[in-house]
Design goal:
The structure holds two protein chains of two kinds. Chain A is an alpha+beta fold. Chain A is 42% helix and 20% strand. Chain A is built from four helices and six strands. Chain A is rod-shaped. Chain B folds into two domains: 2-132, Winged helix-like DNA-binding domain superfamily/Winged helix DNA-binding domain (Arc Repressor Mutant, subunit A, Orthogonal Bundle); 138-352, 3-Layer(aba) Sandwich (Dna Topoisomerase Vi A Subunit, Chain: A, domain 2). The mean pLDDT of chain B is 89. Classes of the chains: A alpha+beta, B alpha/beta.
Amino acid sequence: MGEELLQIGILKELRPEFVAVCQREPSSYSGHPFIVEVGIAYGGEIPRKNDFMLYRFANRIPLLYDEASDVSWKAIKSINWRRYKVTSEMPIAIITHICSTKVPYKTVGKEFISDRPEVSREILNGLREAGRQLKRFLSKQEYIEKERKRLTVFSKYLPKIAQFSTELAEKEKPPDIEKLLRSVKTLEEGD
Amino acid sequence: MERKREVLTNLRGFGARLYGQMEEGVFPWIKMPSRSIENIFYSPELRQYVLGEKTVRRSARNIRHIRPFTQLVWAAYFAHELARNKKTSTLRDVYYSAQAYDMSFKDQPESNSIVTDLETVAGFAREDFNVFPEERSAIFGDLTIEYTVPGYEGKQLNLTSHPDGVLIGPALTSAEFTKTSADKVIAIEKGGLFTRFIEEEVHKRFNALLVLTAGQAPRATRHFIHRLNKELNLPVHVFTDGDPWGMHIAMVIISGSANAAHLRELTTPDAKWSGVWATDIVDYKLPSDDLTEVDVKRLYELQKDSRYEGELWQREIKTFLRIKKKAEQEAFSRYGLTYIVDEYLPAKLEAAS
């Protein structure tokens, strides 16, 4: 399907705040070639649940039943998501797509994909790659949030310090603290 | 009044310094002595606890400092307003007043600690900023004072005018001493004995001003005793219960507490602890109770305290530990209600002089 189309599709259907996609190199199991594509979407209109939402596709067909038995689900559960700054309360949707000349279904009902080690590894690596992108995004968000808070603190208290010391010093007008407030915006982290 | 002006000047100076810093485009900052336990030392010269060399720097540039820093500036502003309008306040009041300026304190201890910071920065006690604790101690005796509080300026009062004694509150603390015929001060721990002393006219018979500390003396009272001693040159005798706690009430009047290491003029180093001593329990065969475990533990603590290095203190602590007894001031009543005034007090005062 390609990363670009996958991304467009996710953005259109789920309207998330952020999306990371990853298409793996072609691989094969038992002589059958396959390609795995993974997408992780965060925020926006994705609902907050206690777990991730999972959308599975095989050769562009959505798989609907028996999600918990699917190789994708197992791969997701085996990842330590804290490493990617992800907690289970976050609004996150995961999309997996496997494209193959012979999709390794477990049952004749073609409801879920069996955990062949080759397939499982590709899905895991895809999730990790997308997870790293998500982590970068979340870190940046965290930083922005922290900066915003810092700025709120400074712009709450500095004017008060200015006001009280003006009254104490019995001056006519408060000192110019605009410069100080501006300088806070460019302060480095951890000061 | 001189002192009040000093306080106002000091607070104004504090504001002006911060104002200047901001005008220069620097984040306002202050430096003040550290009040951490490693920086509190006993000074044998001053005979009280003092703060050491260590200082802390608080800057509004630091995100963790800016909130307490702002609270401190607010406290200075509030104290300045109080002083300017000649109003008084309490610690509890300060806590609530902050909310009017959208400066809420998390809890009472936080606001108290900011007031202590202000004391440290300015070098004045909170009483000087017109922030007073709940008053419970009183004074009685021939001392004429002149009020300086609004509405009473110039009005005089003789402190024998009310037989229950006069409350040592904001008005009295800020009053000027006009004249006295007394030649000593007797501080008493308990209200019952204070009343007995007044009834038995101790103030006349011994030419004394009687001060009721009502347990551990509040800081305003300690400062008041300091003034009586310094301004009127009156020797001070402290009478407490004969137990480690009573002993410590006397010691705090004499040498102050570690909590007030950043302040001066709260102590009366020349004051004497005149009883009830452990040796009195033996000498006067007083009815006594056994020391509890807590009492004994406290005695061992005091034994190591640098304020208790004097010979008298060490002797009494050892005696307490030996006889394992304690006695209250009222114990003298076994020899009749007036025994304490007729026999014990004269003997003690004589021994002290």
